Amino acid sequence: GLSQYSSDPRTEWDLSAYSTRDQVLEAMRNLRYKGGNTFTGLALTHVLEQNLKPDAGARLEAEKLVILLTDGKSQDDANLAAQTLKNLGIEIFAIGVKNADEAELKQVASEPLELTVYNVLDFPLLSSLVGKLTRVLCTRIKEKSNKENADIPVNTGPQLSPTDLKISAVTSKSMHLTWSPPLRPPKKYRVVYYPSKGGIPKEVVLDGTVSSLRLSNLTSHTEYLVSVFPIYDTVVGDGLRGVTSTLPLSPPRSLRVSELSHNSMRLSWKAAQGATQYLVLCSAAPNGAED
Protein backbone atom coordinates (compact mmCIF):
# COMPACT_ATOMS: atom_id res chain seq x y z
CA GLY A 1 0.00 0.00 0.00
CA LEU A 2 1.16 3.56 -0.56
CA SER A 3 0.14 7.02 0.62
CA GLN A 4 1.57 10.41 -0.29
CA TYR A 5 1.33 13.41 2.01
CA SER A 6 1.82 17.13 2.31
CA SER A 7 -0.69 19.05 4.45
CA ASP A 8 -3.35 16.48 3.49
CA PRO A 9 -2.40 12.77 3.21
CA ARG A 10 -3.70 10.88 0.18
CA THR A 11 -3.96 7.11 -0.23
CA GLU A 12 -2.63 6.11 -3.66
CA TRP A 13 -3.53 2.44 -3.28
CA ASP A 14 -4.49 0.10 -0.46
CA LEU A 15 -2.80 -3.13 0.60
CA SER A 16 -5.53 -5.08 -1.18
CA ALA A 17 -5.37 -3.14 -4.48
CA TYR A 18 -2.74 -5.21 -6.31
CA SER A 19 -1.70 -8.85 -6.12
CA THR A 20 1.40 -9.00 -8.35
CA ARG A 21 4.78 -7.29 -8.47
CA ASP A 22 4.16 -6.06 -12.02
CA GLN A 23 0.89 -4.37 -10.99
CA VAL A 24 2.65 -2.50 -8.18
CA LEU A 25 5.48 -1.39 -10.49
CA GLU A 26 2.97 -0.17 -13.07
CA ALA A 27 1.11 1.80 -10.39
CA MET A 28 4.44 3.29 -9.30
CA ARG A 29 5.24 4.39 -12.87
CA ASN A 30 1.87 6.17 -13.07
CA LEU A 31 2.29 7.89 -9.71
CA ARG A 32 2.06 11.70 -9.74
CA TYR A 33 4.33 13.49 -7.28
CA LYS A 34 2.47 15.43 -4.61
CA GLY A 35 4.32 18.60 -3.58
CA GLY A 36 3.56 20.82 -0.62
CA ASN A 37 4.13 20.91 3.13
CA THR A 38 5.59 18.21 5.37
CA PHE A 39 3.02 17.17 7.98
CA THR A 40 4.59 13.80 8.82
CA GLY A 41 2.61 13.32 12.04
CA LEU A 42 -0.66 13.74 10.17
CA ALA A 43 0.58 11.28 7.53
CA LEU A 44 1.43 8.60 10.09
CA THR A 45 -1.99 9.04 11.70
CA HIS A 46 -3.57 8.67 8.23
CA VAL A 47 -1.67 5.41 7.67
CA LEU A 48 -2.91 4.03 11.00
CA GLU A 49 -6.52 5.12 10.54
CA GLN A 50 -6.94 4.49 6.79
CA ASN A 51 -4.32 2.04 5.52
CA LEU A 52 -3.66 -0.40 8.38
CA LYS A 53 -7.23 -1.63 8.80
CA PRO A 54 -8.95 -4.78 7.53
CA ASP A 55 -11.13 -2.86 5.05
CA ALA A 56 -7.94 -1.67 3.32
CA GLY A 57 -6.45 -5.18 3.16
CA ALA A 58 -4.47 -5.29 6.43
CA ARG A 59 -4.45 -8.90 7.67
CA LEU A 60 -4.59 -9.09 11.45
CA GLU A 61 -2.23 -12.06 11.57
CA ALA A 62 0.42 -10.28 9.44
CA GLU A 63 3.27 -8.15 10.75
CA LYS A 64 2.74 -4.43 10.23
CA LEU A 65 5.58 -2.38 8.73
CA VAL A 66 5.58 1.29 7.72
CA ILE A 67 8.35 2.75 5.56
CA LEU A 68 8.46 6.54 5.84
CA LEU A 69 10.18 8.38 2.98
CA THR A 70 10.68 12.11 3.57
CA ASP A 71 12.86 14.92 2.23
CA GLY A 72 12.20 17.51 4.94
CA LYS A 73 11.61 18.22 8.60
CA SER A 74 8.08 17.65 9.83
CA GLN A 75 5.88 20.70 10.43
CA ASP A 76 3.88 18.89 13.12
CA ASP A 77 4.62 16.40 15.92
CA ALA A 78 5.79 13.32 14.04
CA ASN A 79 7.23 11.75 17.19
CA LEU A 80 3.87 11.54 18.99
CA ALA A 81 2.14 9.91 16.02
CA ALA A 82 5.06 7.51 15.49
CA GLN A 83 5.01 6.51 19.15
CA THR A 84 1.33 5.62 18.86
CA LEU A 85 2.08 3.27 15.95
CA LYS A 86 5.04 1.71 17.75
CA ASN A 87 2.97 1.19 20.90
CA LEU A 88 0.57 -0.85 18.75
CA GLY A 89 3.40 -3.10 17.54
CA ILE A 90 3.79 -1.42 14.15
CA GLU A 91 7.45 -1.19 13.08
CA ILE A 92 8.61 2.02 11.39
CA PHE A 93 11.54 2.38 9.00
CA ALA A 94 12.56 5.99 8.29
CA ILE A 95 14.35 7.00 5.08
CA GLY A 96 15.55 10.58 4.66
CA VAL A 97 16.51 12.29 1.41
CA LYS A 98 18.25 15.66 0.90
CA ASN A 99 17.01 17.99 3.65
CA ALA A 100 15.54 15.36 5.99
CA ASP A 101 16.21 15.88 9.72
CA GLU A 102 18.27 12.87 10.87
CA ALA A 103 17.47 13.47 14.55
CA GLU A 104 13.76 13.34 13.71
CA LEU A 105 14.23 10.17 11.65
CA LYS A 106 15.81 8.51 14.69
CA GLN A 107 12.93 9.64 16.91
CA VAL A 108 10.32 8.28 14.52
CA ALA A 109 11.96 4.96 13.66
CA SER A 110 11.74 1.73 15.65
CA GLU A 111 14.71 0.16 17.42
CA PRO A 112 17.39 -0.88 16.54
CA LEU A 113 18.12 2.37 14.68
CA GLU A 114 21.10 0.92 12.79
CA LEU A 115 18.58 -1.25 10.90
CA THR A 116 15.64 1.16 10.59
CA VAL A 117 17.15 4.60 9.78
CA TYR A 118 18.63 5.50 6.37
CA ASN A 119 19.69 8.82 4.89
CA VAL A 120 20.85 9.64 1.35
CA LEU A 121 21.88 12.91 -0.31
CA ASP A 122 19.54 12.72 -3.32
CA PHE A 123 16.68 10.68 -4.76
CA PRO A 124 18.74 8.70 -7.34
CA LEU A 125 20.80 7.29 -4.45
CA LEU A 126 17.72 5.55 -3.04
CA SER A 127 18.41 2.66 -5.41
CA SER A 128 21.53 1.85 -3.38
CA LEU A 129 19.34 1.05 -0.37
CA VAL A 130 17.00 -1.42 -2.06
CA GLY A 131 19.03 -4.60 -1.56
CA LYS A 132 19.90 -3.99 2.09
CA LEU A 133 16.46 -2.70 3.01
CA THR A 134 14.78 -5.71 1.39
CA ARG A 135 16.94 -8.13 3.38
CA VAL A 136 16.36 -6.24 6.62
CA LEU A 137 12.59 -6.07 6.13
CA CYS A 138 12.26 -9.78 5.34
CA THR A 139 14.46 -10.73 8.29
CA ARG A 140 12.48 -8.53 10.70
CA ILE A 141 9.18 -10.03 9.53
CA LYS A 142 10.50 -13.56 10.10
CA GLU A 143 11.89 -12.66 13.53
CA LYS A 144 8.65 -11.06 14.69
CA SER A 145 6.50 -13.84 13.24
CA ASN A 146 8.48 -16.45 15.13
CA LYS A 147 7.90 -14.63 18.41
CA GLU A 148 4.14 -14.53 17.98
CA ASN A 149 2.55 -17.35 19.97
CA ALA A 150 -0.66 -15.62 20.98
CA ASP A 151 -3.99 -16.54 19.44
CA ILE A 152 -4.78 -13.68 17.08
CA PRO A 153 -8.41 -13.10 16.09
CA VAL A 154 -9.12 -13.84 12.44
CA ASN A 155 -11.31 -10.78 11.92
CA THR A 156 -12.59 -7.73 13.72
CA GLY A 157 -16.30 -7.27 13.03
CA PRO A 158 -18.69 -6.72 15.96
CA GLN A 159 -16.50 -8.83 18.23
CA LEU A 160 -13.72 -6.23 18.31
CA SER A 161 -15.14 -3.03 16.84
CA PRO A 162 -17.32 -0.42 18.56
CA THR A 163 -20.42 0.88 16.79
CA ASP A 164 -22.86 3.79 16.72
CA LEU A 165 -20.69 6.84 17.32
CA LYS A 166 -22.83 9.77 18.44
CA ILE A 167 -21.59 13.37 18.73
CA SER A 168 -23.75 15.65 20.86
CA ALA A 169 -23.69 18.74 23.12
CA VAL A 170 -21.65 20.61 20.51
CA THR A 171 -20.58 24.13 21.51
CA SER A 172 -18.02 26.56 20.12
CA LYS A 173 -15.28 24.90 22.20
CA SER A 174 -16.41 21.35 23.02
CA MET A 175 -18.36 18.27 21.98
CA HIS A 176 -19.43 15.02 23.63
CA LEU A 177 -18.76 11.58 22.11
CA THR A 178 -20.50 8.31 22.96
CA TRP A 179 -20.32 4.88 21.30
CA SER A 180 -21.50 1.33 21.81
CA PRO A 181 -18.66 -0.97 22.95
CA PRO A 182 -17.79 -4.15 21.01
CA LEU A 183 -18.86 -7.59 22.23
CA ARG A 184 -15.33 -8.17 23.51
CA PRO A 185 -14.26 -5.20 25.67
CA PRO A 186 -10.95 -3.68 24.57
CA LYS A 187 -8.00 -2.98 26.80
CA LYS A 188 -8.07 0.70 25.86
CA TYR A 189 -9.64 3.17 23.44
CA ARG A 190 -7.62 5.66 21.46
CA VAL A 191 -9.55 8.77 20.36
CA VAL A 192 -7.90 10.94 17.69
CA TYR A 193 -9.30 14.31 16.57
CA TYR A 194 -8.08 17.14 14.35
CA PRO A 195 -9.43 19.90 12.04
CA SER A 196 -10.40 18.53 8.63
CA LYS A 197 -8.53 21.34 6.82
CA GLY A 198 -5.24 20.33 8.42
CA GLY A 199 -3.80 20.62 11.89
CA ILE A 200 -1.89 18.72 14.51
CA PRO A 201 -3.76 15.54 15.53
CA LYS A 202 -4.54 15.27 19.22
CA GLU A 203 -5.39 12.06 21.00
CA VAL A 204 -6.88 10.80 24.23
CA VAL A 205 -6.36 7.26 25.57
CA LEU A 206 -9.20 5.83 27.68
CA ASP A 207 -9.71 2.69 29.70
CA GLY A 208 -11.61 -0.01 27.79
CA THR A 209 -14.52 0.17 30.23
CA VAL A 210 -15.31 3.78 29.21
CA SER A 211 -17.49 4.51 26.18
CA SER A 212 -17.88 8.30 26.24
CA LEU A 213 -15.64 11.35 26.18
CA ARG A 214 -15.95 15.14 26.23
CA LEU A 215 -13.52 16.93 23.92
CA SER A 216 -12.74 20.47 25.09
CA ASN A 217 -10.49 23.43 24.18
CA LEU A 218 -11.54 23.12 20.53
CA THR A 219 -11.42 25.93 17.96
CA SER A 220 -14.74 27.58 17.22
CA HIS A 221 -16.51 27.33 13.84
CA THR A 222 -14.20 24.48 12.74
CA GLU A 223 -14.93 21.07 11.19
CA TYR A 224 -13.30 18.24 13.18
CA LEU A 225 -12.57 14.65 12.16
CA VAL A 226 -12.96 12.22 15.06
CA SER A 227 -11.84 8.57 15.22
CA VAL A 228 -12.28 6.01 18.01
CA PHE A 229 -10.02 2.91 17.95
CA PRO A 230 -10.34 -0.12 20.28
CA ILE A 231 -6.93 -1.47 21.33
CA TYR A 232 -6.38 -5.10 22.33
CA ASP A 233 -3.23 -6.93 23.39
CA THR A 234 -2.50 -8.25 19.91
CA VAL A 235 -4.63 -6.19 17.53
CA VAL A 236 -6.34 -2.86 16.90
CA GLY A 237 -10.04 -3.16 16.05
CA ASP A 238 -11.70 -1.26 13.23
CA GLY A 239 -12.22 2.39 14.14
CA LEU A 240 -15.34 4.53 14.29
CA ARG A 241 -15.24 7.87 12.48
CA GLY A 242 -17.32 11.02 12.59
CA VAL A 243 -17.27 14.61 11.34
CA THR A 244 -18.77 17.57 13.21
CA SER A 245 -18.27 21.33 13.19
CA THR A 246 -18.03 23.38 16.36
CA LEU A 247 -20.36 26.35 16.66
CA PRO A 248 -19.27 29.91 15.94
CA LEU A 249 -18.64 32.13 18.93
CA SER A 250 -21.66 34.11 20.12
CA PRO A 251 -21.65 37.68 18.76
CA PRO A 252 -22.86 40.75 20.64
CA ARG A 253 -26.30 41.88 19.47
CA SER A 254 -28.51 44.96 19.25
CA LEU A 255 -25.85 47.65 18.91
CA ARG A 256 -27.26 51.09 19.86
CA VAL A 257 -25.73 54.55 19.59
CA SER A 258 -26.83 57.35 21.98
CA GLU A 259 -25.67 60.53 23.72
CA LEU A 260 -24.16 61.98 20.56
CA SER A 261 -22.07 65.16 20.77
CA HIS A 262 -19.57 66.88 18.45
CA ASN A 263 -16.76 64.53 19.61
CA SER A 264 -18.32 61.61 21.52
CA MET A 265 -21.02 58.94 21.49
CA ARG A 266 -22.23 56.16 23.75
CA LEU A 267 -22.50 52.57 22.49
CA SER A 268 -24.54 49.81 24.10
CA TRP A 269 -25.21 46.19 23.14
CA LYS A 270 -26.51 42.89 24.42
CA ALA A 271 -23.70 40.79 25.84
CA ALA A 272 -22.14 37.91 23.94
CA GLN A 273 -22.32 34.69 25.93
CA GLY A 274 -18.92 33.71 27.31
CA ALA A 275 -17.12 36.88 26.22
CA THR A 276 -14.51 38.13 28.70
CA GLN A 277 -13.55 41.30 26.80
CA TYR A 278 -14.74 43.38 23.86
CA LEU A 279 -12.70 45.08 21.15
CA VAL A 280 -14.39 48.24 19.82
CA LEU A 281 -13.16 49.61 16.50
CA CYS A 282 -14.12 53.09 15.30
CA SER A 283 -13.17 54.93 12.11
CA ALA A 284 -14.42 57.95 10.22
CA ALA A 285 -16.86 57.22 7.41
CA PRO A 286 -15.31 57.50 3.91
CA ASN A 287 -15.89 60.69 1.91
CA GLY A 288 -19.44 61.01 0.65
CA ALA A 289 -20.89 58.58 3.20
CA GLU A 290 -23.36 59.62 5.86
CA ASP A 291 -21.73 61.15 8.94
TrEMBL record:
PROSITE patterns hit by this protein: FN3 (PS50853), VWFA (PS50234)
Q: Quick one: where is this thing mainly located? A: secreted
Q: Which InterPro entries match?
A: ECM_Assembly_Org, FN3_dom, FN3_sf, Ig-like_fold, VWF_A, vWFA_dom_sf
VWFA domain spans which residues? 1-133
Q: Known Pfam families for this protein?
A: fn3 (PF00041), VWA (PF00092)
Which parts of the sequence belong to the Fibronectin type-III domain?
A: 161-250
Q: What is this protein called?
A: COKA1 protein
Could you tell me which species this protein originates from?
Pluvianellus socialis
Gene name of the record: Col20a1
